[in-house]
Amino acid sequence: MGGKKVLVTGGKGFIGSNLVLELRKRNHEVWICDLMHSSEDKYIRCDTSKYRQVEKIFERENFDYVYHAAAEYGRWNGEDYYENLWLTNAIGTKNLIRVQERKKFRMILFSSAEVYGDYDGIMKEEVMNNIPIKQMNDYAMTKWVNEMQVLNSSAMYGTETVRVRLVNAYGPYEHYTPYRGVIPNFIYKALMNMPYTVYLNHRRIFDYVEDTCRTLTSIIDNFISGEVYNIAGRKEWECEIKHISDLILDYLDKDDSKVEYKKAEPFTTRVKKIDSSKAAKDLGHDPKIPPEEGIPKTIEWMKRAYGLGG
């Protein structure tokens, strides 16, 4: 199948940066939109929450596929900056859908496993259709709103969208902020000799971002409108959060004297059991890089990103 013309919203973010590399590797013509100014070729500055700016992109270019990754990320970010969260995630997605209804490009919507909220069983895609779920924070709510937005548009206007629920992706191009996940948090603080907290009795499956993006890119060749996919690491990679901290400290040859261990984090699911078998069947999702290999790769990238050599 020949290369397609593809737009990645949020293409300068963590997942977006890795996705752009993988799409270009597969000979697609990739354009990026994001908030920052850039001199880069095929880059358009855009705040997706501003309809005029979104519309302007599509007056200039036509796309076969749009990967909609632009979003305000994270639970506590969504508490502290809730107006940004709702404007970008809900209004921004609606703006893109309005243009999609006219232009008829195919969209890949980035949702999140956070939509499963307080569900403590095995998280299969159809759970959201069969069981009343309580989302536990505004970030999770916006992602579920996004899914309903594209489903409604599809029913009313025939738009074609695939939803993806990403699960604990990590790796290069994820800079540390206080709102990011545990892996960049632990790595950054271990590198800088700063204290950090590890909550015991929490288990997660992590997916190295190269594995995530190989599967995301495959959607173009296996596009089934209306489908939704969990994209996670292998079940056998499920581990305690403490194991991730130990891997980081072992690689850096540091002890855990700066680590505070606490029993459990409030308002957070202790164990998330994710089923990615549908993505394996339809998209060939086949994660290759376990945390024991991915964590060192991520540490080396972060050392370079923060000028620490390596």
Secondary structure layout:
Layout: E1 5-9, H1 14-25, E2 29-34, E3 43-45, H2 51-60, E4 65-68, H3 75-80, H4 82-103, E5 106-112, E6 122-123, H5 127-130, H6 138-157, E7 161-166, E8 169-170, H7 182-191, E9 196-199, E10 203-204, E11 207-208, H8 209-218, E12 228-231, E13 239-240, H9 241-251, E14 259-262, E15 273-274, H10 277-283, H11 291-305
Parallel strand pairs: 1-2, 1-4, 2-3, 4-5, 5-7, 6-15, 7-12, 8-11, 9-14
Antiparallel strand pairs: 10-13
Word description of this protein:
The structure is a single chain. With 310 residues, this protein is an alpha/beta fold. A seven-stranded parallel β-sheet has the order 3-2-1-4-5-7-12, sandwiched between helices. The protein has a two-stranded parallel sheet with strand order 6-15. Strands 8-11 form a two-stranded parallel sheet. Helix 1 links the parallel strand 1 and strand 2. Helix 7 runs parallel beside helix 9 and helix 7 crosses helix 11. The longest helix is centred in the first third of the chain and has 22 residues. It is globular, with a radius of gyration of 19 Å. The termini are far apart. The mean pLDDT is 94.
